[in-house]
Amino acid sequence: MNCSQAHDELPALVYGDLKPEEAAPLRKHLADCPACRREQDALQQLRRMLDAVPMPPVEVDLPRLYRQAAAQQERRLRRWRRAAVALAAVAAGLALLAFGHRLEVQLEPHQAVLRWGSSPAPRAPAAQASLNHEGPTSQGPAEQLRLLSELVRALAREQEASDQRQQNSLARLEGRVADLQYLTNERWTTTQRNVAALYAAHVLQTRKGAIP
Amino acid sequence: MGTDDAELIQRWQRGDPAAFAALVRRWQQPVARFLARYVSRTELIQDLCQEVFLRVYHAGPRYREAGAFSTWLYRIAVNVARDAGRRRRREPVALNEDEPATRSPSAEAVCEQRELARLVAQAVAELPEPLRLVLVLHHYEGMNFEQIARLTRTPASTLKSRFAAALRRLRERLQQLGCGPEEAEG
Questions:
Q1: Would you place residue A52 in the very low, low, confident or very high pLDDT band (cuts 50, 70, 90)?
Q2: Residues near A62 by Cβ (< 8 Å), separated by ≥ 6?
């Protein structure tokens, strides 16, 4: 084994990643090569330095996690609801197109009448006169379809508007949180720099005082 | 521990919230430790850790014991860290490159413990992401290369090369900063 091969294998040796039969030639080389032994010592020192980095304690906030999960679930449900309303509108429109000719709609100021199939027997003259007097006569299929479509579209628009308002509120809140986070990070970075500078200045001052 | 994790997951999937809480308590520090080394921005660790377990909570019903729970969990943590990195384009502030290579004859005299830790953390943060990931998982999380290969879907041989390259770059960077590991007298 030459030094170049040894250098390639040293990280694995230092971290215990080599099997005994793989490590044997490397150990033999190290026994005879002071330069590679120095390289091994430097790697071991680097490993110790990596362990010097402290770890901040962290605790997951479970109540907040459950609240976030519930909020995300609610947003998903709203999206599904919007999709369901849209699908229902499409289905209703298709049904009307398919069967609209058999559907009769009569809209009056005080009532709406939906009739399916053939028209009933003609009303008595008095009732007919009353109908004529009270409100508009029945409308053609195309007009009925248009009115129903308008109704469904209005419902869907209302739902969309409501969801949009909620989304806007959420987006505003998210923006505020992001701004606060950014400000906090900036302040923390500045504080870190100041502390490092103060520390360096203190060390320098101490050394100046120590050296006559 | 693997068996205990599987038992907790099964209880949680059957609707036991205490099982999920137990999983969180068991894994929050290892996940936080991993994120702290990988992301190197301590102010983000709490939120990222929270996000990891939120994703675990949502994905729990779909979890199937195809491998170790830890592999699945760390994969989520890696994705959370990467998503955070994409959201925050600002890179960690690199140290001034003009700092003199030697501030004193001996590295130990220059680098007090805290300064050393800060410099090492900074040097780790400056590593390219693929090298940093394998360094953190192998050195700090104690995963072997086969485990890391399953987690990252990268060949183990590639990971070994990246690990060696990460150590090399770290050493070079720390030497530039005057805190490199000193070669012992031969």
A1: confident
A2: B21, B24
ipTM: 0.73
pLDDT for A13: 93
- What is the total residue count of chain B? 186
- What's the rounded mean pLDDT across residues A8-30? 92
Nearest CA of chain B to the CA of A22: how many Å? 15
Place of tokens 């019903």: B61
C-alpha span between A151 and A159 (Å, rounded): 13
- Asked if B36 and A56 come within 8 Å (Cβ–Cβ), the reply is yes
For residue B46, which amino acid is it? Answer: Q
Of residues B39, B22, B146, the one with CA closest to residue A53? B39
Concatenated DSSP letters for chain A?
--HHHHHHHHHHHHTT-S-HHHHHHHHHHHHH-HHHHHHHHHHHHHHHHHTTS--------HHHHHHHHHHHHHHHHHHHHHHHHHHHHHHHHHHHHHHGGGEEEEEETTEEEEEESSPPPPPPHHHHHHHHHHSPPP--HHHHHHHHHHHHHHHHHHHHHHHHHHHHHHHHHHHHHHHHHHHHHHHHHHHHHHHHHHHHHHHHHHHHHH--
> Which residues between 100 and 139 in chain B have a beta carbon less than 8 angstroms from any beta carbon of chain A?
112-118, 120-121, 124, 138-139
d(C-alpha A48, C-alpha A24), whole Å: 24
Residues of chain A with Cβ-Cβ distance to B46 below 8 Å are 58
Answer yes or no: is pLDDT of A144 > 80: no
Q: Which residues in chain A touch residue B115, judged by CB atoms under 8 angstroms apart?
A: 196, 199
Q: pLDDT of chain B along its 186 residues, tens only? A: 455 888 888 888 888 888 898 899 999 999 998 998 888 777 888 899 999 999 999 888 778 766 788 888 999 999 999 888 777 655 554 444 444 444 444 555 555 777 888 888 889 989 999 999 999 999 988 899 999 999 999 999 999 999 999 999 999 999 888 887 764 333
Q: What is the per-residue burial (b if ≥16 Cβ within 10 Å, else e) of A11-20?
A: bbbbbebbee
